[in-house]
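Researcher: Good morning. I'm working through a list of sequences from a screen, and I'd like to move beyond sequence-only analysis. For each chain I'm collecting a predicted structure so we can compare shapes side by side. This is the next one on the list. No need for commentary yet; just the structure.
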Amino acid sequence: MLKRFEQEPADYHGMKYAVGVGNGTDALWLTFLALGIGPGDECLTTTNTFFATAEAIWIANATAVFVDSEERTSCIDPARIEEAITEKTTALVPVHLYGQCADMKPIRKIADKYDLLVIEDNAQAIGAHGDGFPIGELSDAATTSFITQKNPGTCGDGGAVVTNREDVDRAIRRLRNHGSEKRSCHSMGYNSRLDDIHAGVLSAKLKHIDRWNDLRRKWAARYSEGLKEAQHITLPYEKPGYRHVYHLYVIETKRPEQRDVLLDFLNRNGIDAKCHYPIAIHQQAGYPWGKPARIAGPMPNSERNAACDLTSSASARCRMSAFR
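Model: Good morning. Structure tokens for this chain:
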């Protein structure tokens, strides 16, 4: 079942290969290993993301370098990338946050200029696209997560890597299976296969992902229409020409002190809402935990996003509506 399923995300993304792995974090660090990223290498990414993005860099024994995010999308700011590059920089790791694509065209240009690898963290944006580019087209590989709450999610955990590079596909297949390419023959590897049951669930769901994403977009539009006159919050921004798939519908209060007040008000009135990534990675207690890391300049947008972002119940509502 896994072998049959893997062709489906490859075809869906317009890529040659897809490899199913145990989870989205493994998808990232196995990709780093497959690309030869390791000690002494710097990977530039955003600090306004789930911890696993940086964690995967550290698991590969590379250095995480944090770059500020764009003000309106919360994705990594391409204008801040070039100034963060050093002679040790090996890869750029943009994150498609909340269902919105990062601005991949300038990121690809920077990568070409400095001969850098690009790995897209696409745990939250299956089915999204940018202005004139699909996810995966402008990178060496794109990774995703299939944990239950993702769109689509399986009945437990899972992940995948899509790529046009045969060497990356082959290396990850070997690494995920105890270093084996032939039965009973092993080199050093790991145990991180997407199992057949999850592959079957995902095969059934992937056929519906575009329709379900359309429903998410419909509900997100209704939220935005109803909230357009609200004076103390900023609504999600969708770049012209982009397709946002709203894994999460995230609003932002104008000031940090307003967020907890609004969160309490919503929850007391029966509206499920939570703070999403309320602490930027570089602000986490104990940073950098003995791991190689560097903060590339001021982080005003990332820190404001962390202090002001609030996830409404839109994602849950969209998930429910998708199965009606």
